Amino acid sequence: MRRTMMYLPGNNPNMLQRGYLFRPDGLIFDLEDSVPMNQKDAARILVREIVSHQNFGHCELTVRINGMDTEFWRDDLEAVAAAAAVNLRVDGIRLPKAESPAMLSLLDEALSETEAKYGFEQGRFRVFCLLESAAAVWRAYDIATSPRVTGLTPGGEDLAADLRTSRSPDEVELDWIRRMILVAGRAAGVDVLDAAYPLVHDLEGLRKQTAYIRQLGFDGKSVLHPGQISVIHEVYTPSESEIHKSLRVIQAEEEAVRRGQGAVAVDGRMVDAAVIKRARYLLNLAAGDEARP
Amino acid sequence: MKKVMAGTPESMDCVIVVEERPRGSGVSLTISGGERFRAAITDTVMGMLERFGLTDVDVHVQDNGARDVVLSARLEAAFVRYGKDPVPCARLCPERLQEA
After folding, report:
1. Predicted complex ipTM
2. What's the pTM?
3. Which of A5, A8, A118, B91 could form a disulfide with A19 if both were Cys (CB 3.0 to 4.6 A apart)?
């Protein structure tokens, strides 16, 4: 479950150590935009040490490395691997400015070398791609089907700038982008996670946008501020009627199997594989917080 | 004389200043803040100095409630900035490292 993935600034010990207490579904230890250029070395060491030595509860752990157009990304990978050697739950890389399948091939090669060096099974590290340019969005499906790719996320500010626009309150300029990335991701069988909502104190705006992206089909959203987490979780929590209906779908399916029936209807609608899949997804979402340790 | 710094004055962090001393003059350590943890901070600093093979330096620690893991990370960053090679990651989990 990846409803909320919270960015933690890589050079901030307070947030790095306490961020998980806000109970997001995942943590993104950020070595990129939140870290000043002259602190990249210190942040890398800090993230490596904290991730190595701390228990982060149920959270999925990923590290946003610096872009592959910088001098930092290989050292970042080394730090991630070193941390993963101790904290086995670290298994994701967030790649900013993912531009092309060729870039993903180069990253795959580097990760394979790192995995061999540390004795990890090949393919252990998964990659979440941030698509932050028009060209990257255009290649979304090819990027999504590249080795290791597990998720796609549209960029925010960088992407808007590349489109020669700015982010408006309703983000109409990103509407087609979101749909395009969603279709590409679904076609490739990977998760699709929305960019963070930048106005951290506008919780009503966040709620509206989250409802919109949930309806589009997104699996969740990046988070910049702890206060955003509960709003997104609320929106992603199925309603009582959705849960009730999903339970009836599953019960009807089980009953049909018991009776040897091929098809069954609930509320006058035929229950097929797609409806059952949707019901299971909603029940899994509903289990959400309760299912977490 | 060479002088480097790492860390921030923020809560749960610390600032480390490392300054070169004349050869043969040994290590000098000063700590501000973190009075109750002075002994633990001293142990960590001395352990890290030994690990990095650093002698003849002034080390100043301004503690703002940093846990040991943060103190170690900031010391490592300062020592690397001072010119010491990064300690191989093998120290984190040597049995996993496949090459020297």
Report:
1. 0.90
2. 0.89
3. A8
